[in-house]
Amino acid sequence: MEKYDVVILGGGNAGMGVTVATRAAGLSVAMVEARDLGGTCPNRGCTPKKVLVAAGHALHEIERACEHRITVAAPRLDWAALIDREQAMVRDIPDRLAGVMAMRGVDVIHGEAAFVGSNAVRVGERQLDAASIVIATGSRPRELCFPGAELMTTSDDVLSDRALPSDVVFIGGGIIAFELGHVYARAGVRVTILEALPQMLGGFDPDAVDQIRGESERIGMRLLTLALVKRIDRVGERLRVLFANDNSEHTIEADRVVNCAGRIANTDGLDLGAGHVAHRDGRIEIDAFLRSRSNPAVHVCGDAVWNSPQLSPIATYEGRIVGRNIVEGAKHQPDYSQIPSSVYTVPAVASVGLTEAKAAEGGLRIKVQVNDMRGWLSARTYAETVAWSKIIVGVESDHILGAHVVGHAGEELIHIFALAMRHGITATDLADNLYGFPTFSSDIKNMM
Ligand SMILES: Cc1cc2nc3c(=O)[nH]c(=O)nc-3n(C[C@H](O)[C@H](O)[C@H](O)COP(=O)(O)OP(=O)(O)OC[C@H]3O[C@@H](n4cnc5c(N)ncnc54)[C@H](O)[C@@H]3O)c2cc1C
Ligand SMILES: NC(=O)c1ccc[n+]([C@@H]2O[C@H](COP(=O)([O-])OP(=O)(O)OC[C@H]3O[C@@H](n4cnc5c(N)ncnc54)[C@H](O)[C@@H]3O)[C@@H](O)[C@H]2O)c1
Protein backbone atom coordinates (compact mmCIF):
# COMPACT_ATOMS: atom_id res chain seq x y z
CA MET A 1 0.00 0.00 0.00
CA GLU A 2 1.33 3.48 -0.93
CA LYS A 3 0.16 6.63 0.84
CA TYR A 4 -0.37 10.05 -0.77
CA ASP A 5 -2.13 13.24 0.28
CA VAL A 6 -3.84 13.44 -3.11
CA VAL A 7 -4.46 10.87 -5.85
CA ILE A 8 -5.81 12.22 -9.13
CA LEU A 9 -7.54 9.84 -11.54
CA GLY A 10 -6.94 11.19 -15.06
CA GLY A 11 -4.13 13.29 -16.49
CA GLY A 12 -6.10 15.69 -18.71
CA ASN A 13 -6.70 19.42 -18.28
CA ALA A 14 -8.75 18.87 -15.12
CA GLY A 15 -6.24 16.54 -13.45
CA MET A 16 -3.32 18.84 -14.34
CA GLY A 17 -5.26 21.80 -12.89
CA VAL A 18 -5.47 20.04 -9.52
CA THR A 19 -1.69 19.71 -9.28
CA VAL A 20 -1.07 23.49 -9.22
CA ALA A 21 -2.32 24.39 -5.72
CA THR A 22 -1.73 20.96 -4.19
CA ARG A 23 1.93 20.82 -5.15
CA ALA A 24 2.47 24.50 -4.30
CA ALA A 25 1.25 23.61 -0.81
CA GLY A 26 3.76 20.75 -0.62
CA LEU A 27 1.21 17.91 -0.62
CA SER A 28 2.29 14.53 -2.02
CA VAL A 29 0.40 13.97 -5.28
CA ALA A 30 0.02 10.94 -7.56
CA MET A 31 -1.68 11.13 -10.96
CA VAL A 32 -2.99 7.92 -12.53
CA GLU A 33 -3.38 8.06 -16.33
CA ALA A 34 -4.74 5.15 -18.36
CA ARG A 35 -3.74 6.48 -21.80
CA ASP A 36 -1.87 9.66 -22.81
CA LEU A 37 -0.96 12.50 -20.46
CA GLY A 38 -2.84 15.61 -21.56
CA GLY A 39 -6.06 13.70 -22.16
CA THR A 40 -8.55 14.65 -24.84
CA CYS A 41 -7.85 18.33 -25.58
CA PRO A 42 -4.26 18.15 -26.83
CA ASN A 43 -4.26 14.52 -28.05
CA ARG A 44 -7.73 13.86 -29.52
CA GLY A 45 -9.67 17.12 -29.26
CA CYS A 46 -9.11 20.88 -29.45
CA THR A 47 -5.54 20.95 -30.72
CA PRO A 48 -5.54 18.35 -33.53
CA LYS A 49 -9.05 19.46 -34.52
CA LYS A 50 -7.84 23.07 -34.90
CA VAL A 51 -5.05 21.93 -37.25
CA LEU A 52 -7.75 20.59 -39.59
CA VAL A 53 -9.86 23.73 -39.07
CA ALA A 54 -6.86 25.84 -40.06
CA ALA A 55 -6.68 23.89 -43.33
CA GLY A 56 -10.40 24.56 -43.76
CA HIS A 57 -9.67 28.29 -43.34
CA ALA A 58 -7.02 28.11 -46.04
CA LEU A 59 -9.46 26.43 -48.43
CA HIS A 60 -12.08 29.07 -47.60
CA GLU A 61 -9.62 31.86 -48.38
CA ILE A 62 -8.68 30.19 -51.66
CA GLU A 63 -12.37 29.95 -52.56
CA ARG A 64 -12.73 33.70 -51.87
CA ALA A 65 -9.51 34.69 -53.68
CA CYS A 66 -11.46 35.83 -56.74
CA GLU A 67 -13.06 38.56 -54.58
CA HIS A 68 -9.57 40.05 -54.23
CA ARG A 69 -9.12 39.74 -58.00
CA ILE A 70 -6.76 36.78 -57.60
CA THR A 71 -7.08 33.83 -59.92
CA VAL A 72 -5.98 30.50 -58.49
CA ALA A 73 -6.25 26.98 -59.82
CA ALA A 74 -8.54 24.55 -58.02
CA PRO A 75 -6.69 23.53 -54.84
CA ARG A 76 -5.59 19.93 -54.30
CA LEU A 77 -5.63 18.74 -50.71
CA ASP A 78 -3.45 15.79 -49.70
CA TRP A 79 -5.65 14.58 -46.85
CA ALA A 80 -3.25 11.86 -45.68
CA ALA A 81 -0.46 14.44 -45.46
CA LEU A 82 -2.74 16.83 -43.56
CA ILE A 83 -3.54 14.09 -41.02
CA ASP A 84 0.22 13.39 -40.75
CA ARG A 85 0.83 17.12 -40.11
CA GLU A 86 -1.87 17.18 -37.44
CA GLN A 87 -0.59 14.04 -35.71
CA ALA A 88 3.02 15.27 -35.83
CA MET A 89 1.90 18.49 -34.13
CA VAL A 90 0.60 16.62 -31.08
CA ARG A 91 2.89 13.58 -30.98
CA ASP A 92 5.29 14.82 -28.33
CA ILE A 93 2.68 16.43 -26.06
CA PRO A 94 2.37 13.51 -23.58
CA ASP A 95 6.17 13.39 -23.17
CA ARG A 96 6.37 17.17 -22.72
CA LEU A 97 3.62 17.03 -20.08
CA ALA A 98 5.41 14.15 -18.34
CA GLY A 99 8.35 16.57 -18.01
CA VAL A 100 6.07 19.27 -16.57
CA MET A 101 4.60 16.83 -14.02
CA ALA A 102 8.08 15.62 -13.03
CA MET A 103 9.24 19.22 -12.53
CA ARG A 104 6.15 19.88 -10.41
CA GLY A 105 6.92 16.82 -8.29
CA VAL A 106 3.87 14.77 -9.26
CA ASP A 107 4.24 10.95 -9.38
CA VAL A 108 2.65 9.80 -12.64
CA ILE A 109 1.42 6.20 -12.62
CA HIS A 110 0.33 4.57 -15.88
CA GLY A 111 -2.72 2.34 -15.62
CA GLU A 112 -6.42 2.25 -15.06
CA ALA A 113 -7.62 3.14 -11.57
CA ALA A 114 -10.73 1.94 -9.73
CA PHE A 115 -11.91 2.51 -6.17
CA VAL A 116 -11.35 -0.18 -3.55
CA GLY A 117 -12.46 1.94 -0.58
CA SER A 118 -13.54 5.47 0.44
CA ASN A 119 -9.91 6.63 0.40
CA ALA A 120 -8.25 4.01 -1.75
CA VAL A 121 -7.84 3.05 -5.40
CA ARG A 122 -6.21 0.12 -7.12
CA VAL A 123 -4.03 0.43 -10.24
CA GLY A 124 -2.99 -3.02 -11.44
CA GLU A 125 -1.29 -4.64 -8.46
CA ARG A 126 -0.77 -1.35 -6.61
CA GLN A 127 -3.05 0.13 -3.98
CA LEU A 128 -2.89 3.89 -3.40
CA ASP A 129 -4.39 5.40 -0.25
CA ALA A 130 -5.05 9.14 -0.06
CA ALA A 131 -6.77 11.76 2.08
CA SER A 132 -8.25 13.22 -1.13
CA ILE A 133 -9.09 11.44 -4.36
CA VAL A 134 -9.97 13.43 -7.48
CA ILE A 135 -12.05 12.01 -10.31
CA ALA A 136 -10.84 13.75 -13.47
CA THR A 137 -11.52 10.91 -15.90
CA GLY A 138 -13.12 13.01 -18.66
CA SER A 139 -15.91 11.94 -21.00
CA ARG A 140 -16.60 9.50 -23.84
CA PRO A 141 -19.13 9.49 -26.68
CA ARG A 142 -22.68 8.68 -25.58
CA GLU A 143 -23.61 5.14 -26.68
CA LEU A 144 -26.59 4.99 -29.02
CA CYS A 145 -28.76 1.92 -28.95
CA PHE A 146 -30.36 1.42 -32.38
CA PRO A 147 -29.39 -1.67 -34.43
CA GLY A 148 -26.05 -1.17 -36.16
CA ALA A 149 -24.88 1.54 -33.72
CA GLU A 150 -21.61 -0.41 -33.38
CA LEU A 151 -20.81 0.48 -37.01
CA MET A 152 -20.37 4.15 -36.11
CA THR A 153 -16.96 5.74 -35.67
CA THR A 154 -16.10 8.70 -33.41
CA SER A 155 -14.20 11.99 -33.56
CA ASP A 156 -11.06 10.04 -32.55
CA ASP A 157 -11.28 8.16 -35.87
CA VAL A 158 -11.93 11.31 -37.92
CA LEU A 159 -8.81 12.90 -36.44
CA SER A 160 -6.61 9.89 -37.23
CA ASP A 161 -8.04 8.39 -40.45
CA ARG A 162 -5.67 9.12 -43.37
CA ALA A 163 -8.28 8.10 -45.96
CA LEU A 164 -10.64 10.87 -47.05
CA PRO A 165 -14.17 9.45 -47.35
CA SER A 166 -16.53 10.60 -50.08
CA ASP A 167 -19.73 10.65 -47.98
CA VAL A 168 -20.07 11.07 -44.22
CA VAL A 169 -23.15 11.15 -41.99
CA PHE A 170 -22.83 12.75 -38.56
CA ILE A 171 -25.44 11.64 -36.05
CA GLY A 172 -26.08 14.60 -33.75
CA GLY A 173 -25.88 18.23 -34.83
CA GLY A 174 -23.71 19.59 -32.03
CA ILE A 175 -20.33 21.26 -31.91
CA ILE A 176 -18.20 18.32 -33.04
CA ALA A 177 -20.39 17.55 -36.08
CA PHE A 178 -20.31 21.18 -37.23
CA GLU A 179 -16.57 21.61 -36.74
CA LEU A 180 -15.56 18.35 -38.43
CA GLY A 181 -18.36 18.69 -41.00
CA HIS A 182 -17.01 22.06 -42.15
CA VAL A 183 -13.52 20.65 -42.61
CA TYR A 184 -14.81 17.63 -44.52
CA ALA A 185 -17.16 19.71 -46.69
CA ARG A 186 -14.35 22.05 -47.67
CA ALA A 187 -12.21 19.01 -48.46
CA GLY A 188 -14.90 17.92 -50.94
CA VAL A 189 -16.72 15.32 -48.83
CA ARG A 190 -20.53 15.12 -49.07
CA VAL A 191 -21.64 15.78 -45.48
CA THR A 192 -25.02 15.14 -43.88
CA ILE A 193 -25.89 15.98 -40.27
CA LEU A 194 -28.90 14.27 -38.70
CA GLU A 195 -30.10 16.04 -35.54
CA ALA A 196 -32.88 14.62 -33.36
CA LEU A 197 -34.03 17.97 -31.89
CA PRO A 198 -35.63 20.96 -33.68
CA GLN A 199 -32.47 23.09 -33.25
CA MET A 200 -28.88 22.23 -34.09
CA LEU A 201 -26.15 23.52 -31.75
CA GLY A 202 -28.49 23.64 -28.77
CA GLY A 203 -27.45 26.20 -26.17
CA PHE A 204 -26.26 28.72 -28.77
CA ASP A 205 -28.48 31.69 -29.73
CA PRO A 206 -30.86 30.36 -32.41
CA ASP A 207 -30.26 33.43 -34.63
CA ALA A 208 -26.51 32.75 -34.54
CA VAL A 209 -27.22 29.12 -35.39
CA ASP A 210 -29.31 30.25 -38.39
CA GLN A 211 -26.28 32.18 -39.67
CA ILE A 212 -23.95 29.17 -39.56
CA ARG A 213 -26.69 26.94 -40.92
CA GLY A 214 -26.90 29.16 -43.99
CA GLU A 215 -23.14 29.13 -44.46
CA SER A 216 -22.99 25.35 -43.95
CA GLU A 217 -25.62 24.85 -46.64
CA ARG A 218 -23.76 27.25 -48.91
CA ILE A 219 -20.71 24.97 -48.78
CA GLY A 220 -22.88 21.96 -49.60
CA MET A 221 -23.68 20.41 -46.22
CA ARG A 222 -27.06 18.79 -45.81
CA LEU A 223 -28.60 19.54 -42.41
CA LEU A 224 -31.72 17.78 -41.13
CA THR A 225 -33.42 18.43 -37.80
CA LEU A 226 -36.07 16.20 -36.18
CA ALA A 227 -34.30 13.26 -37.80
CA LEU A 228 -34.60 10.02 -35.84
CA VAL A 229 -32.08 7.36 -36.77
CA LYS A 230 -33.61 3.86 -36.67
CA ARG A 231 -30.79 1.60 -37.82
CA ILE A 232 -27.50 1.35 -39.68
CA ASP A 233 -26.74 -1.56 -42.03
CA ARG A 234 -23.58 -2.52 -43.83
CA VAL A 235 -24.04 -2.58 -47.62
CA GLY A 236 -20.80 -3.89 -49.13
CA GLU A 237 -18.09 -1.39 -48.20
CA ARG A 238 -20.63 1.29 -47.33
CA LEU A 239 -23.14 1.97 -44.57
CA ARG A 240 -26.82 2.68 -45.00
CA VAL A 241 -28.60 4.83 -42.42
CA LEU A 242 -32.35 4.50 -42.06
CA PHE A 243 -34.00 7.50 -40.41
CA ALA A 244 -37.43 9.06 -39.97
CA ASN A 245 -37.96 12.70 -40.88
CA ASP A 246 -41.00 14.68 -42.02
CA ASN A 247 -43.37 11.76 -41.27
CA SER A 248 -41.61 9.36 -43.60
CA GLU A 249 -38.62 7.06 -43.65
CA HIS A 250 -35.47 7.80 -45.65
CA THR A 251 -32.15 6.13 -46.28
CA ILE A 252 -28.75 7.60 -46.95
CA GLU A 253 -25.52 5.78 -47.81
CA ALA A 254 -22.10 6.83 -46.61
CA ASP A 255 -18.54 5.59 -46.13
CA ARG A 256 -18.58 6.61 -42.48
CA VAL A 257 -21.25 7.34 -39.91
CA VAL A 258 -19.86 9.32 -36.98
CA ASN A 259 -21.38 9.36 -33.51
CA CYS A 260 -21.61 13.04 -32.51
CA ALA A 261 -24.55 12.66 -30.15
CA GLY A 262 -22.82 14.17 -27.12
CA ARG A 263 -20.35 12.93 -24.53
CA ILE A 264 -21.01 11.53 -21.08
CA ALA A 265 -18.91 11.36 -17.91
CA ASN A 266 -16.35 8.58 -18.10
CA THR A 267 -17.00 6.96 -14.72
CA ASP A 268 -18.16 3.43 -15.62
CA GLY A 269 -14.98 1.54 -14.80
CA LEU A 270 -14.28 3.36 -11.50
CA ASP A 271 -16.34 1.10 -9.21
CA LEU A 272 -17.87 4.19 -7.60
CA GLY A 273 -19.80 1.97 -5.18
CA ALA A 274 -16.57 0.71 -3.63
CA GLY A 275 -15.58 4.36 -3.05
CA HIS A 276 -18.97 5.22 -1.52
CA VAL A 277 -19.45 7.79 -4.27
CA ALA A 278 -23.19 8.27 -4.90
CA HIS A 279 -24.23 8.64 -8.54
CA ARG A 280 -27.12 8.16 -10.92
CA ASP A 281 -26.14 6.22 -14.04
CA GLY A 282 -22.55 7.43 -13.67
CA ARG A 283 -23.54 11.05 -12.95
CA ILE A 284 -21.77 11.73 -9.66
CA GLU A 285 -23.80 13.72 -7.15
CA ILE A 286 -21.69 16.74 -6.17
CA ASP A 287 -22.07 19.80 -3.96
CA ALA A 288 -21.30 23.42 -4.91
CA PHE A 289 -17.60 22.83 -4.13
CA LEU A 290 -17.27 19.96 -6.67
CA ARG A 291 -17.16 17.33 -3.88
CA SER A 292 -19.01 14.03 -3.82
CA ARG A 293 -22.14 14.47 -1.66
CA SER A 294 -21.70 11.02 -0.16
CA ASN A 295 -17.90 10.94 0.30
CA PRO A 296 -16.29 14.37 0.95
CA ALA A 297 -12.81 12.90 0.39
CA VAL A 298 -13.70 12.61 -3.30
CA HIS A 299 -13.69 15.61 -5.65
CA VAL A 300 -14.78 15.75 -9.30
CA CYS A 301 -13.67 18.09 -12.08
CA GLY A 302 -13.66 18.52 -15.87
CA ASP A 303 -15.80 16.51 -18.25
CA ALA A 304 -16.40 13.97 -15.47
CA VAL A 305 -18.73 16.58 -13.91
CA TRP A 306 -21.98 15.71 -15.61
CA ASN A 307 -23.65 19.15 -15.52
CA SER A 308 -21.00 21.75 -16.36
CA PRO A 309 -19.87 22.79 -19.86
CA GLN A 310 -17.49 20.27 -21.44
CA LEU A 311 -14.76 22.71 -22.41
CA SER A 312 -11.02 22.53 -21.99
CA PRO A 313 -10.61 25.85 -20.09
CA ILE A 314 -13.49 24.82 -17.80
CA ALA A 315 -11.75 21.52 -17.04
CA THR A 316 -8.59 23.41 -16.05
CA TYR A 317 -10.62 25.97 -14.07
CA GLU A 318 -12.52 23.28 -12.16
CA GLY A 319 -9.30 21.34 -11.55
CA ARG A 320 -7.67 24.44 -10.08
CA ILE A 321 -10.72 25.04 -7.86
CA VAL A 322 -10.58 21.45 -6.61
CA GLY A 323 -6.85 21.84 -5.90
CA ARG A 324 -7.49 25.01 -3.87
CA ASN A 325 -10.38 23.40 -1.98
CA ILE A 326 -8.17 20.44 -1.06
CA VAL A 327 -5.54 22.82 0.32
CA GLU A 328 -7.78 25.48 1.92
CA GLY A 329 -10.95 23.52 2.73
CA ALA A 330 -14.24 23.81 0.82
CA LYS A 331 -14.19 27.56 0.01
CA HIS A 332 -14.20 27.95 -3.76
CA GLN A 333 -17.14 27.45 -6.12
CA PRO A 334 -17.09 27.63 -9.90
CA ASP A 335 -18.95 30.42 -11.73
CA TYR A 336 -19.97 29.53 -15.27
CA SER A 337 -21.76 32.78 -16.17
CA GLN A 338 -19.09 34.49 -18.30
CA ILE A 339 -17.40 31.75 -20.28
CA PRO A 340 -16.44 32.59 -23.84
CA SER A 341 -16.78 29.65 -26.20
CA SER A 342 -16.72 29.12 -29.94
CA VAL A 343 -17.72 26.57 -32.50
CA TYR A 344 -14.71 26.44 -34.81
CA THR A 345 -16.57 26.28 -38.06
CA VAL A 346 -15.34 28.57 -40.83
CA PRO A 347 -16.34 31.21 -39.88
CA ALA A 348 -16.65 30.50 -36.16
CA VAL A 349 -19.74 30.97 -33.99
CA ALA A 350 -18.60 32.77 -30.84
CA SER A 351 -20.62 33.38 -27.72
CA VAL A 352 -20.42 34.63 -24.13
CA GLY A 353 -23.13 35.17 -21.53
CA LEU A 354 -26.86 34.90 -22.07
CA THR A 355 -28.77 34.16 -25.24
CA GLU A 356 -31.55 36.65 -26.02
CA ALA A 357 -34.19 34.16 -24.82
CA LYS A 358 -32.41 33.58 -21.49
CA ALA A 359 -31.86 37.31 -20.94
CA ALA A 360 -35.55 37.97 -21.60
CA GLU A 361 -36.54 35.14 -19.20
CA GLY A 362 -34.82 36.94 -16.32
CA GLY A 363 -37.40 39.77 -16.53
CA LEU A 364 -34.63 42.36 -17.02
CA ARG A 365 -35.14 45.26 -19.42
CA ILE A 366 -32.71 44.55 -22.22
CA LYS A 367 -31.52 46.27 -25.37
CA VAL A 368 -30.73 43.86 -28.19
CA GLN A 369 -28.78 45.03 -31.23
CA VAL A 370 -28.50 42.66 -34.16
CA ASN A 371 -26.14 43.54 -36.99
CA ASP A 372 -25.70 41.99 -40.39
CA MET A 373 -22.22 43.43 -40.89
CA ARG A 374 -21.61 42.08 -44.38
CA GLY A 375 -22.16 45.59 -45.79
CA TRP A 376 -19.67 47.20 -43.38
CA LEU A 377 -16.35 48.24 -44.93
CA SER A 378 -14.36 45.87 -42.71
CA ALA A 379 -16.43 42.85 -43.79
CA ARG A 380 -16.37 43.94 -47.44
CA THR A 381 -12.59 44.38 -47.28
CA TYR A 382 -12.23 40.72 -46.36
CA ALA A 383 -15.14 39.58 -48.55
CA GLU A 384 -16.71 37.90 -45.54
CA THR A 385 -19.46 35.43 -46.38
CA VAL A 386 -21.01 35.85 -42.91
CA ALA A 387 -20.44 38.78 -40.57
CA TRP A 388 -23.14 38.95 -37.94
CA SER A 389 -23.51 39.95 -34.30
CA LYS A 390 -26.11 40.18 -31.59
CA ILE A 391 -25.20 42.10 -28.44
CA ILE A 392 -27.51 42.15 -25.42
CA VAL A 393 -27.16 45.00 -22.92
CA GLY A 394 -29.03 45.59 -19.66
CA VAL A 395 -30.93 48.88 -19.95
CA GLU A 396 -30.49 49.96 -16.31
CA SER A 397 -27.00 48.56 -15.65
CA ASP A 398 -25.55 49.26 -19.12
CA HIS A 399 -23.71 45.94 -18.65
CA ILE A 400 -23.18 43.45 -21.47
CA LEU A 401 -25.36 40.43 -20.71
CA GLY A 402 -24.57 38.42 -23.81
CA ALA A 403 -22.58 38.68 -27.03
CA HIS A 404 -22.91 36.42 -30.07
CA VAL A 405 -20.77 36.84 -33.15
CA VAL A 406 -20.52 34.80 -36.36
CA GLY A 407 -17.62 35.69 -38.60
CA HIS A 408 -15.67 38.99 -38.19
CA ALA A 409 -12.98 37.12 -36.16
CA GLY A 410 -15.66 36.48 -33.53
CA GLU A 411 -13.57 33.77 -31.84
CA GLU A 412 -11.08 36.53 -30.94
CA LEU A 413 -13.48 39.48 -30.47
CA ILE A 414 -15.56 37.51 -27.98
CA HIS A 415 -12.82 37.85 -25.38
CA ILE A 416 -13.20 41.64 -25.34
CA PHE A 417 -16.88 41.20 -24.46
CA ALA A 418 -16.01 38.50 -21.90
CA LEU A 419 -13.43 40.80 -20.28
CA ALA A 420 -15.98 43.62 -20.10
CA MET A 421 -18.54 41.29 -18.51
CA ARG A 422 -16.10 39.90 -15.99
CA HIS A 423 -14.83 43.28 -14.87
CA GLY A 424 -18.08 45.23 -15.04
CA ILE A 425 -16.98 47.47 -17.94
CA THR A 426 -20.16 49.07 -19.27
CA ALA A 427 -21.27 49.06 -22.89
CA THR A 428 -20.72 52.84 -22.97
CA ASP A 429 -17.12 52.44 -21.75
CA LEU A 430 -16.52 49.68 -24.27
CA ALA A 431 -17.82 51.94 -27.04
CA ASP A 432 -15.68 54.84 -25.77
CA ASN A 433 -12.52 52.73 -25.82
CA LEU A 434 -9.88 53.57 -28.43
CA TYR A 435 -9.33 50.82 -30.98
CA GLY A 436 -6.75 50.55 -33.70
CA PHE A 437 -8.29 51.20 -37.11
CA PRO A 438 -9.15 49.52 -39.42
CA THR A 439 -9.71 46.37 -37.38
CA PHE A 440 -12.66 44.14 -36.60
CA SER A 441 -12.28 45.22 -32.95
CA SER A 442 -12.92 48.83 -33.93
CA ASP A 443 -16.40 47.74 -35.08
CA ILE A 444 -17.34 46.85 -31.48
CA LYS A 445 -18.46 50.41 -30.84
CA ASN A 446 -20.99 50.09 -33.64
CA MET A 447 -22.23 46.65 -32.60
CA MET A 448 -24.01 47.80 -29.41
C1 LIG B 1 -13.12 16.27 -30.94
C2 LIG B 1 -13.15 17.20 -29.76
C3 LIG B 1 -12.81 18.52 -29.94
C4 LIG B 1 -12.84 19.40 -28.86
N1 LIG B 1 -12.53 20.71 -29.09
C5 LIG B 1 -12.56 21.58 -28.06
C6 LIG B 1 -12.23 22.95 -28.26
O1 LIG B 1 -11.90 23.37 -29.37
N2 LIG B 1 -12.27 23.78 -27.20
C7 LIG B 1 -12.63 23.34 -25.94
O2 LIG B 1 -12.65 24.15 -25.00
N3 LIG B 1 -12.94 22.05 -25.71
C8 LIG B 1 -12.93 21.16 -26.75
N4 LIG B 1 -13.23 19.85 -26.52
C9 LIG B 1 -13.57 19.42 -25.15
C10 LIG B 1 -12.29 19.24 -24.30
O3 LIG B 1 -11.40 18.41 -25.01
C11 LIG B 1 -12.66 18.62 -22.96
O4 LIG B 1 -13.63 19.42 -22.33
C12 LIG B 1 -11.44 18.49 -22.06
O5 LIG B 1 -10.39 17.83 -22.70
C13 LIG B 1 -11.82 17.74 -20.78
O6 LIG B 1 -10.69 17.60 -19.97
P1 LIG B 1 -10.70 16.54 -18.77
O7 LIG B 1 -9.40 16.67 -18.09
O8 LIG B 1 -11.92 16.69 -17.98
O9 LIG B 1 -10.82 15.14 -19.49
P2 LIG B 1 -9.77 14.40 -20.47
O10 LIG B 1 -8.88 15.38 -21.14
O11 LIG B 1 -10.56 13.49 -21.31
O12 LIG B 1 -8.86 13.58 -19.46
C14 LIG B 1 -9.33 12.48 -18.77
C15 LIG B 1 -8.20 11.48 -18.66
O13 LIG B 1 -8.57 10.46 -17.75
C16 LIG B 1 -8.03 9.24 -18.20
N5 LIG B 1 -8.80 8.17 -17.56
C17 LIG B 1 -10.08 7.82 -17.78
N6 LIG B 1 -10.44 6.81 -16.96
C18 LIG B 1 -9.36 6.55 -16.20
C19 LIG B 1 -9.11 5.61 -15.16
N7 LIG B 1 -10.04 4.76 -14.71
N8 LIG B 1 -7.88 5.60 -14.60
C20 LIG B 1 -6.92 6.45 -15.02
N9 LIG B 1 -7.11 7.36 -16.00
C21 LIG B 1 -8.31 7.40 -16.58
C22 LIG B 1 -8.18 9.30 -19.70
O14 LIG B 1 -7.26 8.44 -20.34
C23 LIG B 1 -7.90 10.78 -19.99
O15 LIG B 1 -6.55 11.00 -20.33
C24 LIG B 1 -13.20 18.93 -27.57
C25 LIG B 1 -13.52 17.58 -27.38
C26 LIG B 1 -13.48 16.72 -28.46
C27 LIG B 1 -13.83 15.27 -28.24
N1 LIG C 1 -15.20 24.23 -29.79
C1 LIG C 1 -15.46 23.64 -28.64
O1 LIG C 1 -15.45 24.25 -27.59
C2 LIG C 1 -15.77 22.17 -28.63
C3 LIG C 1 -15.48 21.41 -29.74
C4 LIG C 1 -15.81 20.07 -29.73
C5 LIG C 1 -16.40 19.50 -28.60
N2 LIG C 1 -16.65 20.26 -27.54
C6 LIG C 1 -17.33 19.70 -26.36
O2 LIG C 1 -17.58 18.32 -26.54
C7 LIG C 1 -18.91 18.02 -26.15
C8 LIG C 1 -19.46 16.93 -27.03
O3 LIG C 1 -19.66 17.42 -28.37
P1 LIG C 1 -20.80 16.83 -29.29
O4 LIG C 1 -20.83 17.61 -30.53
O5 LIG C 1 -20.66 15.35 -29.33
O6 LIG C 1 -22.08 17.06 -28.40
P2 LIG C 1 -23.16 18.25 -28.31
O7 LIG C 1 -23.74 18.10 -26.97
O8 LIG C 1 -22.58 19.55 -28.72
O9 LIG C 1 -24.22 17.85 -29.41
C9 LIG C 1 -24.84 16.59 -29.44
C10 LIG C 1 -26.05 16.70 -30.33
O10 LIG C 1 -26.51 15.39 -30.64
C11 LIG C 1 -27.92 15.38 -30.61
N3 LIG C 1 -28.35 14.00 -30.42
C12 LIG C 1 -28.31 13.24 -29.30
N4 LIG C 1 -28.76 11.99 -29.56
C13 LIG C 1 -29.08 11.96 -30.88
C14 LIG C 1 -29.57 10.95 -31.74
N5 LIG C 1 -29.83 9.71 -31.30
N6 LIG C 1 -29.80 11.26 -33.04
C15 LIG C 1 -29.53 12.50 -33.50
N7 LIG C 1 -29.07 13.50 -32.72
C16 LIG C 1 -28.82 13.23 -31.43
C17 LIG C 1 -28.26 16.33 -29.46
O11 LIG C 1 -29.58 16.79 -29.55
C18 LIG C 1 -27.22 17.43 -29.69
O12 LIG C 1 -27.68 18.43 -30.56
C19 LIG C 1 -19.68 19.31 -26.26
O13 LIG C 1 -20.56 19.44 -25.17
C20 LIG C 1 -18.67 20.39 -26.25
O14 LIG C 1 -18.73 21.14 -25.06
C21 LIG C 1 -16.36 21.59 -27.52
Question: Would you write up a description of this structure?
Answer:
Residues 4-319 form the FAD/NAD(P)-binding domain. Residues 339-447 form the Pyridine nucleotide-disulphide oxidoreductase dimerisation domain. There is one protein chain. The protein has helices at 13-24, 40-44, 46-64, 79-90, 93-104, 155-160, 175-186, 206-218, 312-328, 356-361, 377-381, 410-422, 427-432, 444-447; strands spanning 2-9, 29-33, 107-110, 113-117, 120-123, 126-135, 139-141, 167-171, 190-194, 222-224, 228-235, 238-245, 248-254, 256-259, 263-265, 279-280, 283-284, 298-300, 341-343, 349-353, 366-372, 387-394, 400-407. The protein folds into 3 domains: 2-141 and 264-328, 3-Layer(bba) Sandwich (FAD/NAD(P)-binding domain); 149-261, 3-Layer(bba) Sandwich (FAD/NAD(P)-binding domain), CATH 3.50.50.60; 347-447, FAD/NAD-linked reductase, C-terminal dimerisation domain (Enolase-like, domain 1). The protein is an alpha/beta fold. Bound molecules: flavin-adenine dinucleotide (FAD) and nicotinamide-adenine-dinucleotide. Residues 9-15, 32-35, 39-41, 45-46, 49, 112-113, 136-138, 155, 176, 266, 269-270, 302-304, 310-313, 315, 344 line the site of flavin-adenine dinucleotide.
Output the keywords:
FAD/NAD(P)-binding domain, Enolase-like, domain 1, five-stranded antiparallel beta sheet, 23 strands, 32% helix, binds flavin-adenine dinucleotide, binds nicotinamide-adenine-dinucleotide
Give me the Rg, rounded.
23 Å
The CATH topology label of the largest domain is FAD/NAD(P)-binding domain
Q: Approximately what portion of the residues adopt beta-strand conformation?
A: 25-35%
Which quaternary structure do these chains form? single chain
Shape from CA axes? globular
The main β sheet shows up as:
7 strands, mixed
Overall pLDDT: 97
Computed structural class: alpha/beta
Helix content: 25-40%
Q: Uncertain runs with pLDDT below 50, 5 residues or more?
A: none
The hetero molecules present are: flavin-adenine dinucleotide, nicotinamide-adenine-dinucleotide
Q: In angstroms, what separates the terminal alpha carbons?
A: 61 Å
Query: Mind telling me the CATH superfamily name of the largest domain?
Result: FAD/NAD(P)-binding domain
What's the β-strand tally? 23
User: Any idea how many domains?
Assistant: 3
Helical segment tally?
A: 14
Assign the CATH class of the largest domain.
Alpha Beta
Just name the CATH architecture of the largest domain.
Answer: 3-Layer(bba) Sandwich
